[in-house]
């Protein structure tokens, strides 16, 4: 299966659970299982190539000049992690189907799960670090949704916020590190970066890149001092916890350290930072886990400890350490997922996870007891189970590791951590399942149906099989290790077997197991000592740091960012003018290369009118209606200026925008007082006037300077002029820039335009549904209203003009690629024609004849433009690359067909939809109580002939 399809399947499949939600729980889980199974089978189709030592790749260039390419790579390491993500994901889906209650929205849950699964698969298959960063952040966002799935639980919401904050901040640091790494290697493709070990390690930027990347890895994989978020994520439903802790989120940081191992490891900095962090995390997590009473909390801190173990192994920088890390990742995924699912079964049946309220479940839940005991013994490192094998390898590596010049430090701490690891495993078994049966369980425990215990039973089967016959896993683990090592080292020739003789690792392991049993014997006094021991609480520290950061931000920002636009404008203007003056004063200014041209009478008159309108606007700005007229005059004079400077496209756009905005602003002014109140003191107004004058003079000086001098470098306009026709197929350079050269900008702009219109609609909906609605409906006009709502002459005129407007709009659209025009201007022209229908016959009459909602028109425009851009991918071109050809259909002359025209259709629809949705929203607000909706295109209100002027509530009013 194509790697693109493999990555896309979970994301596309995420659309299905919500659609299948109404069909029932089984259908919702079934479609989710099918999507993951399809991806799993697709992954296995690449297994022969992986076993042959090949690397499967897929590539689509997006922005090659920036190194942003959609490149995927599947080697042994990527296959291993994808296998865990999809394989355990299938078991989690089957388990969640029976675990979630009927009150839980299963469609929502499985949608989040598939999004998370897709993001994880994207991480492990990415061959471009920029693409990897996108998927990396997607895991943070989707895990936030999963952890906070039970929104009614405060601890769930808090855990989700904590996870997002910590991993998100680490992700920001990692972005910086990855960008530095790409700059060092000269490429953002991992396949290129991994071939430049010496170049990267000899670079002076190696250490900053290493620290930033490790910050991202440590936060994601819960390494000290960022370990505290993971236990709080246990507030998520147990299927989420099992998935996050065994195969996905927390393994993302481990994966990235393994992926970067060939180029980042082997240096003193790597060894010291990674080994120390892993060793501290391993010991700290194990000690805390022993004294946790919540089953999931115990398992969560055990995950922290084992992640530290894997990190320490990768930090040693040896090939054997890397192989042991890969083996333990496999073993940890099997026994940890089984343990979390077993804890979920206990909670599901006994209605508690508190170990102090459990015990004696061995006879009540024999199947669960067997599964959990085997998994826990494997985690403790007991022989004939897979955890024993990788733990022995860890102790062997620790025994040969010297940290800070001390040969005993790492072996002693590794043994100490293993001791507590064995102790909390023994506690989990003994305090949960052994002992006498109690009579005060919150609910009567019993083994669940096969739907809950079969998934962990399958994993425990792997635990036993690998533990008894490790040679079965050896070839695959060594294959994965080879991908980790790359060209930096050779795969060790060590054999996977149960008995290695009387080696130091065996004695360390025996000491850990015996020590764990002794710790259980003295657990009660140890617990009292632990409870009495003063120790920092990570949650409290985190909340204190967040609060301190918020206070600092408020102290720094609120004095400046107080909501006053005049303050923002003043600070920005002064800063820009000051920087510009410094550049002018300290730099060199060349002599003018052009002469000042003589100004004719027409430009002088136009400039005078523009200045007069601007000055009048400043003087009369408190009169809102007059200000709007003056703004319109300024806009029209700017349009005339564009015409004078031979820019008809800009002139047409400016003119149509002025007409539309004036109409919309007139509607908005209907809800505002006639005059703006005085809110600023005289001193502040004088200050603002001074800042404005300085800013205006500085802008004039800069423009005057450039008008008198030639460009320093070749202007981009020359490229556009030279390539407009042969590259974009059009002679109208402005339109070709909009739909071709800068098509991506235009696409973003129509999206923003649509969002703005939707926000206006949302705001009006909120107003109409809230207490403001009554005030709007019962407002009393401050002036008498016209007697005739819809004058006959205006109605007739707009009906006659409408087809003409449509014809002109169609003509402007078609000619846009070669003459002034295009989809944007055509959209504004057609919008004006439709607006005139609303003005002539009223909102009710016009909206009753609306066949398509304006929301849909906006969406259709964005989709048409987007699919036009996507179409270029099918011919191997970057997004929004246009193409054109010439055809002749008799009896017509030869004419051009360009894909840019389709993109322009999207622009046209988005503009029309946005303008009309905004108008419709304001019009709905303008309706008042005691006025009848008009069902006729025109009428005359007889009350205008009466002596008494009409009052509110009796006169009809149109919108």
Morphology = elongated
Largest sheet: 2 strands, antiparallel
Alpha plus pi helix count:
41
Structural class, judged by helices and strands? mainly alpha
* Helical content (DSSP H or I, runs of 4+): 55-70%
User: What is the CA-CA span between the terminal residues?
Assistant: 59 Å
Q: What is the gyration radius calculated from CA atoms?
A: 35 Å
What share of residues are in beta strands? under 5%
Q: Which blocks of ≥5 consecutive residues have pLDDT under 50?
A: 941-948, 950-959
Strand order of the largest sheet: 1-2
What is the mean predicted local confidence, pLDDT?
86
Strands, total number: 4
Would you summarize the structure shown here?
The protein is built from 41 helices and four strands. It is elongated.
Describe the protein in words:
The protein has 959 residues and is mainly alpha-helical. It is elongated, with a radius of gyration of 35 Å.
Please tag this protein with its features.
mainly alpha; two-stranded antiparallel ribbon; 4 strands; disordered C terminus
How are the SSEs placed, and which strands pair?
Blueprint: H1 3-13, H2 15-20, H3 25-44, H4 47-51, E1 56-63, E2 68-74, H5 76-99, H6 106-125, H7 129-147, H8 154-185, H9 190-193, H10 197-201, H11 206-220, H12 229-232, H13 238-246, H14 249-259, H15 261-264, H16 268-290, H17 295-315, H18 319-350, H19 361-364, H20 366-380, H21 386-399, H22 409-433, H23 450-468, H24 474-485, H25 504-521, H26 523-532, H27 538-557, H28 565-586, H29 601-619, H30 624-644, H31 648-669, H32 682-707, H33 716-728, H34 733-741, H35 743-769, H36 772-777, H37 792-815, H38 823-841, H39 843-848, H40 854-871, E3 884-887, E4 895-898, H41 899-926
Antiparallel strand pairs: 1-2, 3-4
